[in-house]
Amino acid sequence: MPGFAPQGMVNVLWAYTTALKHVPPELLTAASEECLSRGSKLAGFGTLNLAMLAWVHAKCRTINPLLVAALSKAALQNLHAFSAADLCKFLSSMAHLRCADVQLLDAAESRLLSFLEHKITNNEEDVQVLCQGVWA
Question: Could you tell me the pTM of the whole model?
Answer without folding.
Answer: 0.82
